[in-house]
Amino acid sequence: MQSAKNQLEKKEILARQAVSDRQEAEALLNQERIRTRTLSHELETIRTESEGKLKFRGIENLSLQVVQAYLSKLKSFHAPAGGLLTAYLPPGTRLSGVISEKALKRVEEETRTLLDRLEPETGLVLFYDLHRMVCEAIAPPFPITFPAWELGDSFEVSLLEEILSKDYRMLVLVLHAGESFIGFAPDAQVFDTEELIRSSVKEKHSKGGFSQRRFERLREEDIAHHMDKVLEVLDRVLEEKKLIDCVILSGDFQLIGEIRKRLPFNLDIIEKPSDIRVEKAGSEEILRTVLSSRRYLL
User: Fold this and answer.
1) Is the full-model pTM beyond 0.90?
2) Are strands 246-251 and 268-271 parallel, antiparallel or unpaired?
């Protein structure tokens, strides 16, 4: 009887000890969870602050002639150890979704962060030396259609050269309130159809109150009238030019949105951010600008 009682007491002691051990373990686990969450939050804060401080070393536009000379220089680079990475990223893709995980780890995080900030409608080509003698990206004037990458002794520029050398039949629209340009170029040389559309559009009003609202309403009517004239020319050009490879749009964001609604669904549309001012640039300058590539020093 005493033996059974002793065994029961031992079991109760063990049970209490087990409960105590479990409570202590849960307390330590909660502490670790809180510590992990705190460290994760601090790490995310540091990463966000670091990303905010990251800046491109430089950004510039390269004309068709200049970018060809630039590619010639890139072709002269050689790395016997195979340390030159080239990656072709179509619109909407990231480096992590194109190259292997092993190769991705060899690209600095700062470079990947800057690259992920870029979202050009035509995609990007990354040229990256693992020793960072070369670290930059090019947004070509026309879209990269499929992903590709290579880590070798030289940069792979032939795909980009192919994009730049192709003759696209382009419809170009530069849209601004009061002054817009429409041109068709059968190749990268010259417009064979071009038209400048001018209208009288009131400048923006800076005063408040009823006079401003009335002024803005009149200005909107002027812009609508200007867009009617633009659409009239656009319809005529679309009727005359049945074979169009792409439409390049530049200028005022709202006007671009209106034009997009009127373009055929089967046309490839490229929006190019630029500061082209129709009143200051001739047709040659407009064509040179829309055919330029954008270079980002990472």
Assistant:
1) no
2) parallel
